[in-house]
Amino acid sequence: MTLRFKPVELFGGAITADIPNSYVDVSNIREVPDHQEIYLDASGFSSIIIEIAERVTQPPTDEEALKFHFQDIVDHNDTSKIWRTDLAHLPHFPPDTPCYILLATTTPPPPSNGNAARPLTPTFTAVILTLIRLLPQSTDIVVTVNIPHIPGQQEPLYANVNFEEGNFGSLVEKGMRIRDEILKSLEVKDWGLFGGAEE
């Protein structure tokens, strides 16, 4: 599954990163909050969200903050499970910048009262989340790649998926490659974006 990437400017050019060619800027379609950049896969259902948030200080540890940011984006009706967490490297950031990655799934509740599920309701969504902690700027950068499994869509790519056994399927593996390329290319061009200390 070949992936080709393009450089994009985020937050008015204050941050740059490489994303897949097939992803389009949602702000050209609808309004997006100033603290977010959202890209959708024009050839599928996946999305990339890059968010600038105030640094989470409670819970106190980085690992707990990672899970806090994940729970913050999960619908309260969904069931969620974290399958993997790890550390990651940011070549264009100060070497001591904490960066944590997480792989999880969210599952919506079954339809109520015997009603059929709405069209394009995912069976589950794989969430590939990265937390970058900028202590001097009191900022957390959260990068999320969302990969919904839509029944009847791209079914062969979900063949033999079993998260319990570590078989995440080709779409999730593609999402991980997208995450890795974003982190490899992500660079702050204007630290004034965060309104605090410079790099």
What does this structure look like?
The strands form two sheets. This protein has a seven-stranded antiparallel β-sheet. The chain has a three-stranded antiparallel β-sheet with strand order 1-2-10. The longest helix has 17 residues, at 169-185. The mean pLDDT is 90. Helices cover 15% and strands 36% of the residues. A hairpin with a 4-residue loop joins strand 8 and strand 9. By secondary structure, it is α+β, with helices and mostly antiparallel strands. The chain is built from two helices and ten strands; from the N terminus they run βββββαββββαβ.
| Mean pLDDT across residues | 90
SS strand fraction: 35-45%
How are strands sequenced across the largest beta sheet? 3-4-5-9-8-7-6
Question: How many distinct beta strands?
Answer: 10
Amount of helix: 10-25%
* Distance between the first and last residues' Cα: 37 Å
Largest sheet: 7 strands, antiparallel
Helix and strand composition category: alpha+beta
Succession of helices and strands: EEEEEHEEEEHE
Radius of gyration from CA coordinates: 17 Å
Given the C-alpha coordinates, what overall shape results? globular
